[in-house]
C-alpha cells in the first residue's frame, strides 16, 4: 500500500501525541472558571473504529480496475479506514460527527497518483465516468472543504496528493522553488532548509497541511506579515483539468487580464487539481527572534500594532492577545522553576505598582528577521512604539516558548472533546478603523448565543496578522456541549460569523469557505460577486465533477 | 456640454504642449546616430480634423433620446470630434492610424454619466438594446483596449467616466480612500494631498490616466516597489453589471474563494463598468529623495538591483537604464550651465581614469521615502550594495531632474512621428535568473526585425520595477517608417513580444492586453488558462456587450 501517512481518524495529529496538563498546574482551575469544566472527572472513551458505520463503496470493480491501471496496484483503495480518514477535515463539526458515528457519505475510493501525469489520467477517467473528484492534501481543513455531499449519487473519488511530496527545483538566482502540491509543511522546510532557503509559510496547521491545500484555501502563516499570504508567495502553478493543464509561469507580476492565478488560489478543487506550485523562497535569515511584550489593555495593544503597521518597521510577526487569551496562555505554562516564577511575580508586582490592572494585561509577540543589524534597527523602531502605547518588553523567554508550542493548540481540542466540551475558531479581517467594532460585536454575538443556549461559554481573541489598512482578528470559543453538540456549535459559530460580515469584516481571513462559511458569501462579496464566481465554476466545470457544493452551495 | 477635458485627438497631452529640443544641444546628433533621422528637415504637417473621414453614428434618435433621459441633455453626444477622441488610445498604432485617416469604426455615441446610478441605468439600457459598451477613462491605453471592433454591427457606446472624478471619503483610521473611477492622477493626488495623504501610484501616463483605467488594466507606478502595483493597492471596488453591482468591501486580505477582486482587476471592461475603488493610501512621507547612481556596465547595474531586492532595504524606486538609454537620457539634458558641465566633465574623467568604458555607463535612480532617519538608514544599505557592484552615487541632481521630466516622454513620440519616425514601448517581467536572457533576446529580436525591414532601428531598455523574485524590463524602440508604418511597427513589436514569452517573460508587466497583446495570451498563461478566462467572460457577458474582443479575441 501507499506510504502516505495520515492523522488520527478521530482527531488531530499523530497517534500517541496528546495534550497533557498534569505538568501545567494553572490549567485545570482556568478551564473550570472559563467553561465550568471539571478536569478531575474522567474522560469519555470514544468509539473504536470497528464501531463506526461506514457506507459501502459505490465504485464498481471495473472502475477500480481502470484506475488501478492508471496509478498502479495498491494506489487505489476502498478500505474503510482510508475512506473514513478522507471523509472530513478537522473542524470541530468534523470531529463531533466522526465521534458520533455520523458518516452519511464517504468517498467511494481513495486514489494516490504518483505524479502529474497520473493525476491527469485519473481526472480524465473520472470525468469520463461522471465521477466526483475531491482533492485531499493533509486533511486539516476546518471549513468543510472536503465533505462529500450527503446526497451525491455518483462515485466520489478522494484524490490524495500525498505522493507528490517533493521540492522539484530551486531557482537560486531568483528565489523561486517549484514544489509538488502534496508536500507537507515540515517536509518542504526540511528540503528547502537543506539548501539554505525557507518559504516562510507557517500556518497553525503547518505540521500536517500541504502546499496544494494552502493554495486551494488561501492560507496565511504566522510570519505572513513579512513573507506574505500564500496568494503573495505563489508565483506560478500547474493545475490539471479534463482537457489539459493550466500552466501559470512564475513571473513576479503580470498585466494579462483577470488573474487566472488568483482564480485558482482559493478554488478548493472546484476548477481542477493543483499539482505543482512555484513559490518565492528566501535565504534563511541570519537572525530570527520573537520577543514578548505586555500591554496594559487590549486597546493599547491594538493601537500599537496599528502604529507598527503604519511605521517604517516591517516585523515578521505582529500578534497581541486580549486579556482572556493572555490569561489562557499564562495558564498553559508548565510549572515554573523557582527562579522564573520569582521573576514573573516580581514583574507583576512592578506593573501593579505602575497602576496596571493585571486582569486586563495583554500578551504580545513580535517577530524580527534579517541581518543582526537590521533586527536591531527594527527592534528599536518597534520598541519606541510599544513604549508610546504604555507597553513593556518582556524579552525572549515568552517568545521562545510561543515559538515552541505554536503548533500544539489543535491537540487541546481533542482533549476537551474527550471531556464534553467543544472548542473551535472563527477569524476575520477588517480595516483598522472597524477592528474594535468587529471585536466587540463578535464577543457580544458569542455571549448572546451562549445565553440563548444557557451555557457558560468562553470566547477569546488575538490579532494575528497586520496589514497597512487592517488586520486579522482570530477568535477561539469553547463551551460544554449538551444534547445536540453540532446544533449548539452552529448557533455560536453562526452568530460570530454574522457579526463579522455585519461590521465590515470578511467571513474568513485564511480558513477558506468550504460549506461552513458559504452561507455568508453573498453578504461578503455581494450577490453579483457571487454570480460572477458561479459563472466561473459552471463554465469551468459544466458537469459538476470537481468538489461540487464547496464555496458556493449548489 | 460636459466639462470633461480630453487629450489632443491626434497625439499625447494637451494642446500647446510639445517636445522641444532647441535647448537640448545633444539631442539632434543623438537622434541622427540612433535612427538616422535628420532633425534639421522640417516636420510634416499632419491632417486637420476636417480632413478626417469619420463614419456616421449608427445610433438611432430614439436611443439617443432614451440615454439623454438617463444622464441629462448634453451628456450624450454624437459629435464627430468627441467620437474620434474616444476611438483609440495612444499607442503608436493608434497615432499612426489617426494620422492616416484610418477610422473604419468609431463609437456611435459618447455618454457621460454623472454617478454610479446613471452608469447603472446606461448599462441596463445598453444591454436591453443589445448595444456595445466600451468604458473610457483618460484614453491613455497603448494596448488597443479601447478599439471598437471594425466589424461591429451593433451600436457602440463609449462610456466616459470623466464626471466621476471625486475622492469620496478617506478612512483616516485605516489608510483607505474611496475614489470614483474617472478621477485622473493629478486630481487624485491633489485631493488626497490636501489632507496629508498620497496613493503613491505614478504610472508614466499619470497626468492623464484614471483610477478606473489603472484598475482595469493592472497598472504599475514608478514607486510601486514601495506602494505596490494597482492590484496590491486596490482593496475594495464597485462594478456595475446589467443586473446589479458587484461590491467588494475593503478588507486587507480574505479567504473567500477565487478572488473576484482579482478577476475585475485587469478586466478591461469585459465584466462590467468599474465606478468606485477603495485604495490604500499613505501619509505623505516626511522625506522623499531620488538619488542618481552610475554603474560601469548593465550587468553590474542589474546585479545591484537584484541584491537590493533581496536585501533588508526597501526603496520606493529601483531603476537602471542600459548604456543606450543612459546615452539617450544624457542627450535630452538641457544645455548645462558652465558649472554643471564642468562637474560632469570632471566626473567622467575620474571614471575613465578608474577604467570605466563610458560607452557602457548605466544611469540608475533609486528612491527613498519615510522618516529622515529611515531614509538615511536605507541609503546606507543601498549605498554599500551599489559600491559592491562597482557603482557610484552621483547625488540628488540627476534624480531631481528625472523626477521633473518623468511624465514628458510621450510628447517625444509625437515629435518623432511628425518627422517620420515611429517610437513605442514593450515591457515584460521575468524571474531574476532569466532577465539577462530576456534582455538579450529582445534586443536580438528587434535588431533582426530591423534587418529584415532594412531600417536603421533603435532599441533601449531600463529595469523599472524590482520584486523579490524578478523584475520588469522596459524597452523603447524607434525607427524611420517606410510605406507601411503600421505593418513595419507590427513586425518589430511582434518580434519583441515573441522573444518575451519564448524566454520566460510575460507579454506585459503593466500595459494590459487589449488587442495588441492578445495573440500571446495562450503562450503566456497556457491554453487551459485562456479557456478558464474565456469561460469567465462568456458566463459574465453572454451577449458580448462589454468591450468584446479585448484580452481574448472572439
From TrEMBL, chains A, B:
Gene3D superfamilies assigned: 3.30.300.330, 3.30.465.10, 3.30.70.3450, Uridine Diphospho-n-acetylenolpyruvylglucosamine Reductase, domain 2
PROSITE patterns given in the database record: FAD_PCMH
Origin: domain of life: Bacteria
InterPro entries associated with the record: Alkyl-DHAP_Synthase, FAD-bd_oxidored_4_C, FAD-bd_PCMH, FAD-bd_PCMH-like_sf, FAD-bd_PCMH_sub1, FAD-bd_PCMH_sub2, FAD-linked_Oxase-like_C, Oxid_FAD_bind_N
Keyword presence, Flavoprotein: yes
TM segment ranges: none
Keywords: FAD, Flavoprotein, Oxidoreductase
Domain FAD-binding PCMH-type: 103-284
Family: Belongs to the FAD-binding oxidoreductase/transferase type 4 family.
Family annotation (PANTHER family): ALKYLDIHYDROXYACETONEPHOSPHATE SYNTHASE, PEROXISOMAL
Record-given protein name: Alkyldihydroxyacetonephosphate synthase
Amino acid at each position: 500500500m501507499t506510504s502516505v501517512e495520515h492523522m488520527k481518524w478521530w482527531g488531530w495529529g499523530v497517534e500517541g501525541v496528546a495534550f497533557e496538563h498534569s505538568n501545567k498546574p494553572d490549567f485545570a482551575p482556568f478551564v473550570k472558571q472559563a467553561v465550568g469544566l471539571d478536569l478531575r472527572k474522567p474522560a469519555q472513551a470514544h468509539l473504536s473504529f470497528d464501531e463506526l458505520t461506514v457506507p459501502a463503496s459505490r465504485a464498481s470493480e471495473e472502475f477500480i480496475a481502470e484506475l488501478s491501471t492508471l496509478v498502479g496496484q495498491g494506489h487505489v483503495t476502498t478500505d474503510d479506514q482510508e475512506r473514513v480518514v478522507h471523509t472530513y477535515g478537522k473542524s470541530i463539526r468534523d470531529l463531533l460527527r466522526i465521534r458520533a458515528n455520523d458518516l452519511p457519505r464517504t468517498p467511494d475510493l481513495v486514489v494516490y497518483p504518483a505524479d502529474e501525469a497520473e493525476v491527469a489520467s485519473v481526472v480524465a477517467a473520472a470525468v469520463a465516468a461522471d465521477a466526483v473528484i475531491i482533492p485531499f492534501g493533509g486533511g486539516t481543513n476546518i471549513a468543510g472543504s472536503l465533505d462529500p455531499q450527503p446526497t451525491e449519487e455518483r462515485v466520489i473519488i478522494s484524490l490524495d496528493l500525498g505522493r507528490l511530496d517533493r521540492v522539484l527545483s530551486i531557482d537560486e538566482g531568483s528565489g523561486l522553488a517549484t514544489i509538488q502540491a502534496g508536500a507537507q509543511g515540515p517536509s518542504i522546510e526540511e528540503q528547502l532548509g537543506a539548501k539554505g532557503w525557507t518559504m516562510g509559510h507557517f500556518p497553525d496547521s503547518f505540521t500536517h497541511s500541504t502546499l496544494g491545500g494552502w493554495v486551494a484555501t488561501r492560507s496565511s502563516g504566522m510570519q505572513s506579515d513579512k513573507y506574505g499570504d500564500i496568494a503573495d508567495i505563489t508565483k506560478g502553478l500547474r493545475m490539471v483539468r479534463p482537457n489539459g493543464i493550466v500552466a501559470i509561469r512564475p513571473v513576479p507580476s503580470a498585466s494579462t487580464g483577470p488573474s487566472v492565478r488568483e482564480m485558482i488560489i482559493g478554488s478548493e478543487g472546484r476548477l481542477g487539481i493543483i499539482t505543482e506550485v512555484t513559490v518565492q523562497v528566501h535565504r534563511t535569515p541570519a537572525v530570527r527572534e520573537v520577543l514578548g511584550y505586555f500591554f496594559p489593555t487590549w486597546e493599547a495593544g491594538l493601537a500599537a500594532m496599528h502604529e507598527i503597521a503604519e511605521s517604517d518597521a516591517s516585523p515578521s510577526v505582529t500578534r497581541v492577545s486580549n486579556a482572556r487569551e493572555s490569561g489562557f496562555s499564562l495558564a498553559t505554562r508548565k510549572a515554573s522553576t523557582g527562579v522564573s516564577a520569582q521573576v514573573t511575580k516580581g514583574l507583576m508586582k512592578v506593573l501593579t505598582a505602575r497602576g496596571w490592572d493585571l486582569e486586563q494585561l495583554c500578551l504580545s509577540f513580535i517577530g524580527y528577521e534579517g541581518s543582526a543589524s537590521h533586527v536591531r534597527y527594527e527592534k528599536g523602531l518597534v520598541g519606541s512604539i510599544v513604549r508610546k502605547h504604555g507597553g513593556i518588553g518582556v524579552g525572549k523567554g515568552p517568545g521562545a516558548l510561543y515559538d515552541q508550542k505554536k503548533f500544539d493548540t489543535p491537540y487541546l481540542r481533542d482533549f476537551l472533546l474527550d471531556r464534553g466540551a467543544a472548542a473551535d475558531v472563527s477569524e476575520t479581517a477588517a480595516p483598522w478603523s472597524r477592528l474594535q467594532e468587529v471585536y466587540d460585536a463578535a464577543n457580544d454575538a458569542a455571549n448572546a448565543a451562549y445565553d440563548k443556549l444557557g451555557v457558560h461559554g468562553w470566547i477569546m481573541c488575538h490579532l494575528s496578522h497586520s496589514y497597512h489598512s487592517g488586520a486579522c482578528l482570530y477568535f477561539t470559543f469553547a463551551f460544554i456541549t449538551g444534547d445536540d453538540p453540532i446544533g449548539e456549535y452552529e448557533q455560536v459559530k453562526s452568530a460570530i460569523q454574522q457579526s463579522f460580515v455585519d461590521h465590515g469584516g470578511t467571513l474568513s481571513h485564511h480558513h477558506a469557505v468550504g460549506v461552513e462559511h458559504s452561507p455568508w458569501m453573498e453578504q461578503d462579496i455581494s450577490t453579483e460577486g457571487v454570480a460572477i464566481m458561479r459563472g466561473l465554476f459552471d463554465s469551468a466545470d459544466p458537469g459538476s465533477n470537481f468538489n461540487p457544493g464547496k464555496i458556493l452551495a449548489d
